[in-house]
Amino acid sequence: MQAGSHLRVALTTNSLVHVDAGFADARQVVFYNVTREGATFVDVMPFGGALRKLPETKPGDTKPGAVKPGFGKNGGACMMAEDLASDAASGDLLSSRVQVLAGCSILITRGLSDLAAVRLQDVDVFPVKTERSHEIDSVLDRLQLMLNGRPALWLRRVLRDAHGRLVPLEEQGL
């Protein structure tokens, strides 16, 4: 790996301790630079509002057809149509969240819509979705361990130099 190469990593969080929020629902995103030697905190960026609202239910609502978050009727289904509608109605909140991540190598999140993934790829951010909550420190340790071995191709493609530019594969010396 070229000297000075690093990963600028963004992690979605509500607690500032765990990767515990999806991209659309996160209250903030934290940024770290990760190298073979360690991880350095860069910044935390609060997000104004959620991109989507989960269907509302009342406690104890057991009526047939009552929608519960995470169970059908867009609570657990594809949110792309809602993302498009919320973009038009909310001054394109999705684009503003994506622009915050410009210059990052990787976004690690609990959830991500297809539309958000495409927009992240457009600004050269590689999205990684986790199935469960992880401590931020353990995620950073895992990335550092991967960099110290022989990094996977997807990881090598997102390495950046000391100036924040992507490092071409042929210049990485691996």
Give a description of the structure.
With 174 residues, this protein is an alpha/beta fold. It has a single domain (7-51, 76-171), classed as 2-Layer Sandwich (Nucleotidyltransferase, domain 5). Helices cover 25% and strands 20% of the residues. It contains 5 helices and 7 strands, in the order E-E-E-E-H-H-E-H-E-E-H-H. It has a 5-stranded mixed sheet with strand order 4-3-1-5-6. Strands 2-7 form a two-stranded antiparallel sheet. Strand 5 (106-109), helix 3 and strand 6 (126-129) form a beta-alpha-beta unit.
**Regarding CATH, which class?**
Alpha Beta
The portion of residues forming beta strands comes to: 15-25%
Q: What CATH architecture label applies?
A: 2-Layer Sandwich
CATH superfamily: Dinitrogenase iron-molybdenum cofactor biosynthesis domain
The quaternary organization reads as: single chain
CATH topology: Nucleotidyltransferase, domain 5
Widest β-sheet, arrangement of strands: 4-3-1-5-6
The whole-angstrom Rg is 18 Å
Task: State the distance separating the first and last CA atoms.
Answer: 6 Å
Helices, by number, come to 5
Number of strands: 7
User: Which stretches are low in confidence, meaning pLDDT under 50 for 5 or more residues running?
Assistant: 53-57, 63-81, 87-91
The helix/strand order is EEEEHHEHEEHH
Mean pLDDT: 76
Q: Estimate nothing, just give the exact number of structural domains.
A: 1
Q: Give the proportion of residues in helices.
A: 25-40%
The profile of the biggest β sheet is: 5 strands, mixed
Shape: globular
